[in-house]
Write a structure and sequence with these properties.
single chain, alpha/beta, Rossmann fold, 42% helix
Length: 314
């Protein structure tokens, strides 16, 4: 009787192990849609809601139901639009490998960064001036990006590639600022975002810090006045975020901001732990990583960590 029960127990353990193994396999193995590898540029379409073109790269194997969005960052102002267009093309060429790795389409907008800052703001960073810009072509680049995404989803649907409304985002420096700020304004449209060196400070998901009001882009105190609706903290805190910065990074897009310098810190690195503290205070699904010996640059280790983060959430 003892031998019989022991045999039954061993068989039961084996069955459970096989069920677990089979279950894990079904979870980790994504479905693959095979398609033609393409790279297309779609021109501005004001009727659809975007006044600038965008690039859409589609790898031959689709393993994710999300578009990867990386906004363009030329690095300087110019009224020669071809410069911004060329920079966007280079960005697509650079990040094709990431799109292939994730098995998802890649969308790169071609937003301008005009010389006249007062008219359009720091467009590539989605700052407060750009949100309030009155010329229609510069107005609400966040909404123009959503219009591009929706247009791309429809185009992919015509190719029988099913894509969800939520996107993956990656960005570094100004494009990291854009990814961070876009996610704060539209968390319901972001599946996960990797945000590198976001201009000295990531937008805090709170209206105040130690009794001091934090207006956009430092915080979200005046977000309603800028965009017409309140900050959606529930959606935001459930969006996985990976923040990364080099501990030698001195690139600061907000060097003269009185609130930051007086109440938070005078350098990007000194502000980093406070940003993490604020994000954790509202239970955000986030990780803040500081890379030792790294300046304002993207290292191989950063690339590996970011790629794995996006792979986990694709």
């Amino acid at each position: 009787m003892f031998i019989y029960r022991k045999k039954m127990l061993i068989e039961l353990i084996c069955i459970i192990f096989l069920l677990i193994l089979t279950g894990c396999s079904s979870i980790t193995t994504p479905s693959i849609t095979t398609t033609e590898e393409t790279l297309e540029k779609f021109e501005a379409d004001s009727e659809k809601g975007f006044h600038w073109p965008y690039y859409l790269y589609v790898p031959s194997a689709i393993e994710s139901s999300h578009i990867l969005v990386i906004t363009n960052n030329t690095g300087y102002t110019s009224d020669d639009f071809s410069i911004h267009d060329q920079a966007a093309q280079l960005l697509v060429d650079w990040k094709k490998s990431l799109a292939k790795f994730l098995g998802c389409p890649l969308l790169v907008p071609v937003f301008p960064r005009p010389y006249n800052y007062q008219e359009a703001g720091y467009t590539h960073a989605l700052d407060e001036v750009s949100l309030a810009a009155t010329p229609v072509i510069y107005s609400r680049l966040d909404l123009q990006l959503i219009a591009m995404i929706d247009d791309a989803i429809n185009r992919l649907d015509e190719r029988e590639i099913d894509i969800e409304e939520t996107i993956l985002m990656w960005g570094f420096s100004a494009s990291g600022m854009f990814a961070n700020r876009f996610t704060a304004i539209h968390p319901e449209r972001v599946k996960a975002a990797a945000i590198g060196a976001p201009g000295g400070w990531p937008t805090a998901p709170v209206a105040e810090y130690k009794g001091v009001e934090l207006d956009y882009p430092i915080g979200i105190a005046d977000l309603f006045q800028l965009v017409g609706y309140s900050f959606d903290v529930e959606s935001f805190k459930n969006t996985p975020l990976y923040f990364y910065l080099g501990d030698q990074d001195k690139n600061d897009a907000l060097p003269h901001n009185v609130t930051l310098n007086t109440y938070i810190g005078t350098t990007p690195v000194s502000r980093w732990p406070i940003a993490e503290e604020i994000y954790n205070s509202v239970d955000c699904n986030c990780e803040f990583v500081l890379y030792s010996g790294v300046g304002h640059e993207i290292t191989d280790q950063m690339v590996e960590d970011v790629n794995n983060f996006l792979l986990q959430h694709r």
